[in-house]
Amino acid sequence: MTPEEFRRHGREVVDWLADHMERLEDLPVQSTVAPGDVRAALPPHPPQAGEPFADVLRDLDDIVVPGLTQWQHPSFFAYFPANTSGPSILGDLVSSGLGVQGMLWATSPACTELETHVLDWLAELLDLPERFRGHGVIQDSASSATLCALLAARERATRGRSNREGVRERLTVYASDQAHSSVEKAVRIAGLGQDNLRLVPVDGDQAMDAEALARMVAEDVAAGAVPVMVVAAVGTTGTTAVDPVPAVADVCARHGVWLHVDAAYAGVAAVCPELRWVNAGLDRADSWCTNPHKWLLTGFDLDAFYVADPVALTGALTVLPEYLRNAASESGAVVDYRDWQVPLGRRFRSLKLWFVLRWYGAEGLREHVRGHVALAAELASWVDADARFELVGAPRFGLVCLRVRDLDDAGHVALLARVNATGACSLTHTTVAGRVVLRVAIGSPATERRHVLAAWELLRREAG
Asked: What distance lies between CA 454 and its chain's CA centroid?
């Protein structure tokens, strides 16, 4: 593809994407294809000769789009949002076009230094503690951030023995029983053994019981275990519960345990000064992460991960073969982000966040978050006013959890299936205290009050 062909077809792709954005509301939120339909529509063998670009765009419309769940749809209320935006898309386009491999400062200085600087911008916008400034790195997701935090915590707890010899101590990790599944996966990947993940019970608000944590850690220490890390959640996946980070930090401080705060969804809420209560206790955390790709208009994948002291992180992840040695790294004056993540290679991800922050500014980002918080509060008021329904917990951020009072769990599952089958909106469920609960997560940039109202009326109608 010549530069001129790229220019011509690139305009066609941008036009296609713009048209897709404009028609999103007319598409079903969830795909209606059956398993195997997409593959059946594709040729069984790859093309022997190149095809016209128009054929590729045609197949996008005819084959790909019908097989998509439309995450950017204004009536997508399932899971948490996976926002993107025009500036983010364009930043990603530039990243792909430059084709930078940013594993070392020396392989593209701008890739490294822009990332460090943009993450400091984000830390300022979210009013993060000074201990995290200059110590941010972009991971692909909060799952990777949790794994890296655990590897750093293990490095500190074992004084580096984990990299050089077998560690005979029983190493334990703690999280609430509402924590994200990535905690369990990290424990398994790190080789600590699933039995050494200690799930802490929660209180009536689905937040970690700090007193129960204190007892569990003390019992494990008395039994000869080495507590490695506690994961506190700010905005759990199921109900956006917020663990008591200051009280958890007290427990960690008594036993020298690494405290990682997972604020994957809710952390960006701190862009609004009135929501900065989510940062309580962060001045005592060892690491923290949030996903701008969830609620801050930045396309997947981009997790912002911060550590108070990167020494343990780089100690756990640094491997230096001869072919990566260079004068800049040897000088100690630069950051090599390959030592801050599991893979060696890395994309120029900071470009899309840079584009987003510059296009929207702090005021635009606050307006975006506040709008969803207000819509969630209004939906909660409608639920509260309908005697047939009940709220499950107070609405937090952009999430509302609810139940139909006289409907059993099987009935809720059936209700969810009926609602989603309409194609008009998409919801998910969770369980709270053993009961099925419906989740309405408001977060799409295109969502307006009328979309939330339509989803509520659909729920009421399908509930009978």
From this structure: 27
* CATH fold label, 100-347: Aspartate Aminotransferase; domain 2 (3.40.640)
3-state secondary structure of 283: helix
Name the residue with tokens 């792909």: 96
Q: What is the dihedral of CA 333, 301, 142, 420, to 10 degrees?
A: 170
3-state secondary structure 43-56: CCCCCCCCCCHHHH
Q: What is the pTM of this model?
A: 0.94
**Concatenated DSSP letters for 141-202?**
SHHHHHHHHHHHHHHHHHTTGGGTS---S-EEEEEETTS-HHHHHHHHHTTS-GGGEEEEPB
The full set of domain ranges for the chain reads 100-347
Per-residue pLDDT tens for 6-38?
999 999 999 999 999 999 999 999 998 999 999
pLDDT for 163 beyond 70:
no
Cβ neighbours for 133, distance < 8 A, ≥ 6 positions apart: 120, 123
Of 266, 261, 271, the closest CA to residue 294 belongs to 266
What are the angstrom distances between the C-alpha of 402 and each of 6, 74, 126? 49, 20, 30
Q: What integer pLDDT is reported at residue 161 of this predicted model? A: 73
